[in-house]
Write a structure and sequence with these properties.
Layout lengths: L7 H35 L2 H29 L6 H7 L8 H17 L4 H36 L13
Helix pairs in contact: 1-2, 1-5, 3-5, 4-5
């Protein structure tokens, strides 16, 4: 008799978050492009170049995460844990860095101005990545357990005490 287990809420929640994150990245790229044009028309070239860099950053992130989402849609749930163990760059690995750079732009906005939108976008990107990192860890664990249950290898699993 095959065990009947499902983990659709975890997978659905992850894909909904990835879709929202991709939409946020597109919006961030579009907003940065608008601000690039406005800063250029105003004659502020340094902020315009920084926002132009943000356009490239958000657009490449959008393409990378969109490709990741499409690749995950075609994978079986039981192989998610292998995929995320070898996936590079680590999903959510730069969350703290985005928040710290966002705080640097908050300070730059206080001192010089014109960087508040970029600071908010970077901090939100860091928060999104941190949430995605937690969802990936949950998905990896559920995928591994599901794979082991289906293969009848539950007795080989061992829990490690993190306090030892």
């Amino acid at each position: 008799m095959k065990p009947m287990t499902t983990f659709p809420p975890i997978r659905r929640r992850f894909f909904a978050m990835m879709k929202a994150y991709t939409a946020f990245l597109w919006a961030g790229g579009g907003l940065s492009l608008i601000l690039t044009v406005l800063m250029t028309r105003r004659g502020s070239l340094i902020p315009a170049l920084i926002y132009l860099t943000a356009v490239a950053f958000f657009t490449t992130s959008t393409l990378m995460y969109g490709e990741l989402r499409e690749e995950l849609k075609h994978l079986r749930f039981t192989s998610y844990w292998r995929f995320f163990s070898t996936y590079s760059p680590p999903l959510g690995g730069y969350a703290i860095l985005h928040v710290l750079v966002g705080l640097v732009f908050v300070i730059a906005d206080i001192l010089k101005g014109d960087y508040a939108v970029l600071a908010i976008l970077l901090i939100l990107k860091g928060i999104f990545e941190h949430v995605l990192m937690g969802l990936v860890e949950n998905l990896k664990t559920a995928s591994l357990l599901y794979d082991e249950v289906l293969n009848g290898q539950v007795d080989r699993l061992s829990l490690k005490d993190p306090f030892k």
